[in-house]
Predict the 3D structure of the following.
Amino acid sequence: MTRRSWSLLACCWIFASVAGCGSSNLAAVSGKVTYDGEPVAEGEIRFIPTSQGKDMPGMSGGKIVNGEYSIPSDKGVPVGNCRVEISARKKTGKQFEAVMPAPPGSMIDETISYIPREYNTASTLTFDVQPGSNSRDFLLEKVGK
């Protein structure tokens, strides 16, 4: 092996060490979400790292569909302890006239948020995300039950 080959090999090894050999601070997370025993039809789930660092990825999340969510590792959740926020809306049965840019006279369904703030904006839910694939169900109950 020539001196140049050794130098190139050494540079590649150093780069791989610094880059973590393809490892990531992100992991896949999936599971089910219910509220008061019923699957959450559609909503969102967010994972927010509880410790922030310069190299720490930010918040990650995904959609809840028919009571299930799945966040692949390429869109991943930061590894480590995360605060979890869950939100969902449902139709009230009322409609009102849409505003611009909808055509005049267009009606849209009124929706309300029905997940208590203890599970979203004031969430006390946490999950310790491990490297690789994680599974975690969130079985939410009405507050004060």
Summary: The mean pLDDT is 83. Residues 30 and 70 are 4 Å apart (CA to CA).
